[in-house]
TrEMBL record:
Residues 18-121 form the Gfo/Idh/MocA-like oxidoreductase N-terminal domain. Gene3D superfamilies: Dihydrodipicolinate Reductase, domain 2, NAD(P)-binding Rossmann-like Domain. This is Gfo/Idh/MocA family oxidoreductase. It comes from Paenibacillus planticolens. Residues 131-253 form the GFO/IDH/MocA-like oxidoreductase domain. InterPro entries: Gfo/Idh/MocA-like_OxRdtase_N (IPR000683), Gfo/Idh/MocA_Oxidoreductases (IPR051450), GFO_IDH_MocA-like_dom (IPR055170), NAD(P)-bd_dom_sf (IPR036291). Pfam families: GFO_IDH_MocA, GFO_IDH_MocA_C3. It comes from the Bacteria.
Length: 328
């Protein structure tokens, strides 16, 4: 069996731990190294699973590595992806792909020039409810789509996410891209206009916004609204949600991405909790990344997909600044 040698660069984003576990369970994958300048973030898994550790990601890129998974702070995505591409490594990059259009275009170009693939980490495409909705839409079950209402609520993630110099933005950037990618995937139509609202409503001391609302028009006539707020308090049973109400000419599909859950009431936790029992979206995404590279196929979620979703968030910031709709 052919083996894909994968390295991981930065565990700044917590999704890295889930991706690591997903990679570890695939017999066709060998994790050849983890690079993180903050050793304490990864020392437990490095020791437990005897994975080579590199304080400098450049040393990892010099190794015999086929691909890397990058889960750094948002503002570092571009430089890390471009260096990995120049080292001839395929890349899976955490969302949002980048913090400016120019850097995302450079990331995509660098990968193409070096003959490697760039995949954006959008695991929500693998949620069971989302997959079934896509199948129903493609079959024409609800006719032509007229409008979509979406939410990606969450709790304030804290840490570097609320440091604009590292994140590039707040809730608008962090929570627009997942559901925006799903809308793009369903509609296959370009966004032509964005009108947005953003504010700091839940923690006044923040330097980034924690509330956002986007109104989007597509070239095919569909309009959509998306709530991207970090509005969930610490007492909420889970970090957030991914929902959509998709209105068609012949019916409506309601998507609740994390509805496959049990309600757990625990004195130890001190609050009610949702425990998800559905399929592991991260595992499915990682499996498809590995499968595409081993079989020489195109990755299922491209760098261009990442750019299209992040482009809407960046246009939203421009709309907030101008106080009016922005044409794309």
């Amino acid at each position: 069996m052919e083996t894909l040698k994968i390295g991981m660069i930065s565990f700044a984003h917590g999704h890295a731990f889930s991706y690591f576990n997903s990679l570890r369970k695939l017999p066709e994958v060998k994790i050849v190294g983890i690079a993180d300048e903050v050793q304490s973030r990864v020392e437990d898994i490095v020791d437990r699973y005897e994975v080579p550790y590199y304080a400098d990601y450049r040393e990892l890129l010099k190794q015999d590595v086929d691909a890397v998974v990058i889960c750094s702070e948002n503002v570092r995505h571009a430089s890390l992806v471009i260096e990995a591409a120049n080292a001839k490594k395929h890349v899976l990059c955490e969302k949002p792909l980048g913090t400016t259009m120019e850097e995302m275009e450079r990331m995509i170009a660098a990968c193409k020039q070096n003959g490697v693939q760039l995949m954006t980490a959008f695991p929500c495409r693998y949620l069971a409810a989302v997959v079934r909705a896509k199948e129903a839409i493609d079959r024409g079950d609800i006719g032509d789509i007229v409008a979509i209402k979406g939410t990606n609520h969450g709790g304030n993630p804290g840490g570097w996410f609320i440091d604009k110099s590292l994140s590039g933005g707040g809730a608008l950037l962090d929570h627009t891209v997942h559901v925006m990618d799903l809308m793009n995937w369903f509609l296959k139509s370009k966004v032509k206009e964005v009108y947005a609202y953003a504010a700091t409503l839940f923690r006044e001391e923040l330097e980034v916004e924690d509330a956002g609302m986007l109104h989007v028009k597509f070239e095919n006539g569909v309009f959509a609204v998306l709530d991207t707020s970090w509005s969930r308090p610490k007492s909420f049973p889970t970090w957030g949600d991914v929902t959509m109400e998709i209105v068609g000419t012949q019916g409506v599909i309601t998507v609740d991405g994390f509805a496959q859950k049990n309600d757990l009431f625990s004195n130890a936790a001190g609050k009610g909790q949702y425990t998800f029992w559905g399929d592991d979206m991260d595992a499915f995404m990682i499996r498809d990344f590995v499968k595409a590279l081993l079989h020489g196929e195109q990755v299922p979620v491209t760098g261009e997909d990442g750019l299209k979703a992040a482009e809407v968030a960046l246009a939203a910031y421009e709309s907030v600044k101008l106080g009016q709709p922005v044409a794309m």
